[in-house]
Task: inverse folding
């Protein structure tokens, strides 16, 4: 593709949606303007670059240090380490000599997108790039060995390589990657299609529970996040957008704050956002608090949470062309059944609350714009920088910083980059850091969409399901983020997890008849992807309802599910693995109750068993077992950590207060009114990994959706009535 | 105004109502202490004031006086504090943003209670982590306090010192 001829918008689409093709760099001495700041901001991006770039993925120094280029963003999920393990596996280099560099979107674009897609969301960091990354590494190995063969004038077949040491087997002569890297870089790369990759079952480095490459600086304060960035002459800004979404900025009285210490000025960022710029962020933020601002709050100002809830509820009763799967006549089958089960569920808006609030730093020098951004979407930020400044893409560069959490907030809309660019435009030659206050971050998020579902099933006299009718009413992410993906008014994404076809999120049950419907009910509140995205609510709807059906059918929840899962062996595999690990068939001590759930997302299969006790409406989780089939497992230790993180976030998702709307604005402003789950509430998590080695699934996102329903089902068993309204304080329950 | 941070005296010219957090970050220039909420809820800004943990976002710098401030940068010179060693050995941090505060809170707990029980850990570790590293934080404290062997904790995760790369 010829990117230089494309518009920025097309670039955004290509940069965020298309996967990268396989394009190996030609062997040349690199001149990589990788992220360079005057302060140490990323310990994994050295400021000196390799003398011998074997190809785009691998550069090797004379001392045998191997720099592996990583295009995906790191936000704690461990993708940097996992991708480096995959490269090391195929490259056959020495892990102890591996360092990583973060490829920049600008350099990638200048090199015909040699590093492919940068976007890191949808649990795609490894599973979408593993093939071309591994082939790139294998190609580098082939070139390095060929270089040694050329140097010694011996056939390649007489050489072997181990941990970066090449041996000529007949003579025992040895050399290292560092010594032949420069020669290797001049060779013609092999055809990537000709390369046979290793069978993951034979991996030695990948597949191992290796330690992260980037932990040491996280325990002593030396790791520099975007919020910490200090560049010479830097100014800081705090921003405020109209409290009511859709409202406009009318005026502000700059004179009232210009005398405040350190204040440099006020910038109108866009129609609804204003920034105060000062010498330090605290001063900027304090002055912003004193700035008189007049808003036109617009028609959204009248909207209450109750209005939104009523609108969603009405959607459940609407009749229309809402169907997405129609297999047989489910409504007829249900109404003709001896037993009809019906339940209405509610799940709220949720904020991301990345621990590091949104921020970006931009410096505009002459006709060039540079941004330092904690982002999940480097190319999206590059496009946003170009769009905000009006500079062509090739005059822009984005240095991706490791993020203090991403959770989806930093992957879709790159508003933080656009805002910083607009402020920096007023201060040419000066780097400007725009950091959002926690209050601004929480009240101007792209929230987890709100949703309701009416679930209806028919059960025959033998306790078998005759039909399943799933009707979801709620807000569409695509309507905010990607309207082009809504086809004929139907938005498939909102029914994630109920799909018939793969590979990402198929329903794990075969019902005799099935109808799935989505009624789009958009509010003025912006929504976006939030770890697990629509599998969160859909997992709750499906799996809580399955327990209600099992109860109506008089069957054990596991056996009831198993009977419907015979055509879905991988879903069934994790269900059985979780049940087995949790000793599902053994009775629990008095007062303890269990619940199970399984669901699929991001090409991976998850199941969870929770054991709880409930006393005085306080829920204690006594045991939590998790089973995952992600196909391959690149790093089992870090995979387990992702599951542990998903459990904590999921428990917050069902127990912590929700994000709510009052007078058109978000009522919850900070962690005092929107608390996150604490250590003391988090149960011990027992994980079983059951990879089947025949596909590549995600890890960070598919592991959240089963936790809520498993816990909810255990609670329902304990209290003898189904819980349907989330968060669970609405059911009078709290977490110990 | 004078501020004693990590054994060094800094002359800083700041407003008396500036929170200690921002004096440390923007006047002294040490950014290991993090801004997370500004309302003493998350604990990412935890530092020691005369050896006691405080949430520096909610302490005005004028209230510090001659108290000695210790930040994460001075917990040890070389990641040698038992908590830091355990955190690295177990890969406790994910994104790492809250971990300065977690490490400071855990080190303060061990100073007060060298062999904390799970209940002690529950009570002391109120710092928030959005990545959900809580299970590893608990493990890390048990290892740092010598109550559990590193190898035993790793074994729970099907890992060993030899397989950690």
Result:
């Amino acid at each position: 593709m010829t990117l230089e001829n494309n518009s920025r918008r097309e670039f955004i689409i290509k940069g965020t949606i298309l996967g990268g093709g396989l394009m190996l760099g030609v062997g040349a001495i690199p001149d990589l303007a990788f992220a360079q700041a005057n302060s140490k901001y990323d310990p994994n991006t050295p400021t000196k670059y390799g003398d011998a770039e074997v190809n785009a993925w691998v550069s090797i120094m004379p001392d045998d240090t191997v720099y592996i280029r990583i295009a995906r963003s790191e936000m704690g999920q461990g993708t940097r380490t996992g991708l480096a393990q995959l490269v090391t596996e195929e490259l056959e280099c020495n892990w102890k000599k591996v360092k990583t560099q973060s490829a920049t979107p600008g350099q990638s674009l200048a090199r015909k997108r040699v590093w492919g897609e940068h976007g890191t969301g949808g649990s795609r960091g490894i599973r979408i790039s593993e093939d071309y990354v591994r082939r790139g590494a294998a190609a580098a190995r082939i070139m390095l060995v060929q270089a040694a063969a050329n140097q010694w004038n011996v056939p390649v077949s007489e050489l072997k390589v181990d941990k970066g040491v090449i041996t000529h087997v007949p003579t025992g002569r040895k050399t290292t990657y560092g010594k032949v890297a420069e020669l290797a870089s001049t060779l013609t790369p092999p055809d990537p299609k000709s390369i046979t990759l290793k069978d993951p079952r034979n991996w030695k480095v990948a597949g191992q529970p290796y330690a992260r490459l980037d932990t040491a600086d996280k325990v002593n304060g030396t790791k520099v996040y975007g919020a910490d960035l200090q560049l010479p002459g830097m100014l800081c800004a705090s921003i405020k957008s109209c409290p009511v979404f859709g409202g406009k900025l009318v005026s502000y009285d700059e004179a009232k704050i210009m005398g405040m210490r350190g204040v440099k000025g006020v910038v109108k960022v866009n129609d609804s956002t204003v920034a105060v710029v000062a010498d330090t962020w605290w001063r900027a933020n304090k002055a912003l608090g004193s700035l008189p601002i007049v808003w036109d709050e617009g028609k959204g100002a009248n909207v209450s949470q109750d209005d939104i809830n009523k609108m969603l509820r009405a959607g459940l009763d609407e009749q229309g062309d809402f169907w997405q799967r129609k297999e047989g006549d489910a409504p007829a089958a249900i109404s003709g059944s001896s037993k009809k089960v019906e339940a209405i569920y509610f799940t709220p808006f949720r904020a991301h609350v990345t621990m590091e609030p949104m921020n970006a730093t931009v410096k505009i020098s002459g006709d060039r714009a540079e941004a330092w951004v904690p982002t999940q979407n480097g190319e999206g930020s590059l496009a946003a920088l170009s769009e905000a400044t009006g500079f062509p893409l090739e005059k822009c560069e984005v240095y991706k910083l490791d993020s203090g959490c991403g959770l989806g907030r930093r992957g879709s809309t790159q508003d933080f980059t656009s805002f910083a660019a607009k402020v920096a435009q007023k201060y040419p030659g000066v780097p400007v850091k725009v950091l959002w206050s926690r209050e601004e971050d929480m009240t101007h998020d792209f929230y987890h969409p709100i949703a309701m579902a009416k679930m209806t099933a028919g059960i025959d006299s033998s306790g078998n399901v005759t039909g399943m009718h799933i009707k979801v009413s709620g807000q569409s992410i695509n309507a905010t983020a990607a309207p082009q993906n809504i086809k004929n008014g139907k938005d498939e994404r909102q029914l994630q997890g109920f799909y018939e076809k793969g590979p990402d999120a198929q329903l794990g049950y075969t019902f005799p008849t099935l109808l799935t419907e989505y009624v789009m009910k958009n509010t003025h509140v912006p929504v976006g992807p939030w770890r697990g995205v629509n599998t969160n609510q859909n997992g709750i709807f499906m799996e809580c309802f399955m327990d209600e059906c099992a109860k109506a059918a008089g069957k054990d929840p596991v056996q009831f599910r198993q009977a419907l899962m015979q055509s879905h062996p991988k879903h069934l595999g994790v269900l059985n693995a979780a049940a087995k690990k949790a000793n599902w068939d053994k009775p629990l001590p008095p007062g303890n109750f269990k619940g199970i759930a399984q669901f699929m997302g991001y090409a991976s299969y998850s199941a969870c068993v929770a054991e709880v006790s409930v006393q005085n409406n306080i829920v204690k989780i006594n045991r939590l077992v998790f089973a995952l089939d992600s196909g391959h497992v690149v790093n089992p230790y870090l995979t387990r950590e992702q599951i542990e993180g998903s459990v904590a976030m999921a428990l917050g998702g069902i127990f912590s207060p929700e994000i709510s709307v009052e007078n058109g604005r978000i009522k919850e402003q900070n962690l005092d009114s929107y608390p996150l789950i604490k250590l003391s509430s988090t149960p011990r998590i027992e994980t079983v990994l059951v990879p089947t080695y025949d596909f590549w699934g995600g890890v960070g996102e598919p592991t959240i959706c089963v936790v809520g329903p498993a816990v909810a089902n255990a609670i329902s068993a304990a209290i003898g009535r189904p819980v349907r309204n989330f968060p669970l304080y609405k059911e009078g329950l709290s977490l110990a | 105004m004078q501020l004693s941070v990590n054994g060094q005296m800094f002359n800083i010219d700041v407003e008396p109502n500036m929170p200690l957090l921002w004096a440390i970050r923007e006047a002294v220039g040490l950014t290991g202490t993090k801004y997370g909420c500004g309302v003493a809820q998350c604990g990412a800004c935890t530092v020691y004031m005369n050896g006691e943990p405080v949430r520096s976002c909610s302490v005005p710098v004028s209230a510090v006086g001659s108290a000695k401030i210790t930040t994460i940068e001075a917990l040890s010179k070389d990641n040698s504090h038992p908590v830091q060693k355990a955190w690295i050995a177990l890969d406790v941090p994910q994104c790492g943003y809250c971990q300065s505060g977690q490490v400071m809170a855990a080190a303060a707990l061990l100073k007060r209670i060298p062999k904390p029980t799970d209940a002690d850990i529950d009570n002391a570790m109120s710092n928030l982590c959005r990545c959900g590293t809580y299970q590893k934080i608990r493990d890390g404290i048990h290892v740092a306090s010598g109550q559990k062997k590193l190898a035993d904790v790793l074994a729970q995760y099907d890992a060993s010192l030899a397989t950690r790369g």
User: Anything to note?
Assistant: The mean pLDDT of chain B is 98. Residues 152 and 160 of chain B are 8 Å apart (CA to CA). Chain B touches chain A through 65 residues (CB under 8 Å).
